[in-house]
Amino acid sequence: MDRFEKWILIRIRLVGFCFLLVFALIAGRAFYLQVLSQPDWQRRAERQHQKLIPLTPQRGTIFDRNHEELALSTEVDSIYAEPRKVSNPAGQARALAKVLGLSSRELKAKLSSKKNFVWLKRQAPPSESDQVRKLQLAGIHFTREHRRFYPNSEIGAQVVGFTGVDPKGLEGIELQYDSLILGQGGIMEIERDALGRGMGAGDHLVQEGRRGSDLVLTLDRNIQYIAEKELAAGVKKTNSSAGTALVIDPSTGDILAMASQPDYNPNSFKHYRPNHWRNRALCDTYEPGSTLKVFVMAAALNEGVVHSGQKIDCEKGSFWVGGRVIHDHHPYEKLTVEEIVKFSSNIGSAKIGKALERERLYNYLRDFGFGAPTGIDLPGEVGGLLRSPSRWFELDLAAISFGQGLTVTSLQLARATAAIANGGNLMSSDLVRKVIDNQGQVVEERRPRTVRRVVSESVARKVARMMAMTTEKGGTGTLAAVPGFKVAGKTGTAQKVDPVTGGYSADKRVASFVGFVPVEDPRLVVLVVLDEPQGKTYGGLVAAPVFSRIASQALRYLKVAPTEDSFQSPLPPIVEMAALEEPEPEPAEGDAAGMRMPNFSGMSYRQVLETMARTGINVRLDGTGRVVRQSPPAGRAVKFDKQAWVKMAPPS
Length: 652
Fold this sequence. Notes:
By secondary structure, the protein is an alpha+beta fold.
């Protein structure tokens, strides 16, 4: 074989080897794609033929302390379209616009889209979705989603908060505990062809959602309603710009009510300004005024720098301190320490503050919880202002002693007063008492917790007796008296700072009253704050009566027996009644003061509470919605030894 033939043979073999190598590579690649990578490519193919639509998760329920619903999720229809299946976008848009209350132009643009899926309206009301179903329009479909609903409307709105369509929590407890309440949403699958067009019936659920955890709060829905109702009436009567009311159980620190005015309805929060959403008990600070004198007195007694019965010269109403003159509202001469609290003497408090000096007074105010956030489980809390004592001049020490030169929140003030009421212990302030998972198991339960002891029990009792003198004859808070009970309290009237001049405003005030009842065994601490009341601006004149009405109705609801012999009916609430009361029949033996059961049939929760306030009858409420049953029947006598109740259910 010559050299030419050998070279031809080599070339043939080389080409054959290249063909074999290429074939091996192609076979290996095919094996990799069809065997080893089959699951991955199968998923990619499925994704090309499927569109996954996330659905809103079902949030857990928020309950009050009695397991009454404050926020819950209900199933509603969400309406969507497959534009490729819509034959007449303009006509369908006009028909849908009338039912859904949306712009026909916006709907036409969606229905004319080249997309294979568009939302038309998420979480539509049942009345709207029913009407759309009756239209039987091509390419229009429905899926079930969960919508947040607040059955009590405004009651507890600033505490509970609200959610968006997502439904992410946006305010209040809904925001603070969003990760716990939210749950996991389901997924809806839509089949489509290679061109992205919808195929077949359209959708089915490929993944069930997981419900979020439930929360049980310390709030009491009934006491919350009482506080909101009376605060709103007080704000209206005094033409105040805003108001706050708090009700606390001093023995546990539980917040039973936290009300703010103006309020809003979380079911339609978009119709209100953000100013209405704010929880003023946490977000608004103000100078406490004379209410702070209670804590200055407690500190002085605990340190032994003053003692019961000691007299202090109040300088006939004028006292020179640090280059300025401070005044009392009356030219007092010598007052006992008890009378300094009773008559709210600025000069007497300034002298007691001087006896304590800067460091000790500052430390006690910090121990009572002023100058730092309480740590409550709600968003947006501020800590107020309490400057370091190294920055206090002589005038600052005097001013702080009677409540000027520092700022507090309503929650701080109510919580500090609860420490006096319970014998000197500052309690924690958790709003959530229990966390319950979607299986109904309690996964977390928070017990009442003592943060620290501030003053001794004997000192706390002495201060409580001093505060009780405030509501007795001659005191500054006589309008806070609760018939049948002995009340301990303190009035406060503080000037507001003018943001333009930087000094105190000539006419803007914050009026407040804080106290607890009964003095012997405190069950409730109540704080009322009215911002910029018009006309009468003193806390004893405008805030104290609101305290009285809240406390009297809350005690009656809690069935606390009167402690005083001379029992009289509580002060009537400042609300206008639309219906005339019929004359009551003569009481029968065993009747509750001759009370007859009203006809609650068909009433809403709010209407039942209003009737209770008007008639003075304590009724246990079960469920939500409208009244379907009641005991005793309408017109029957309410017996002392039997509980009256109404059963409520959602409309069918």
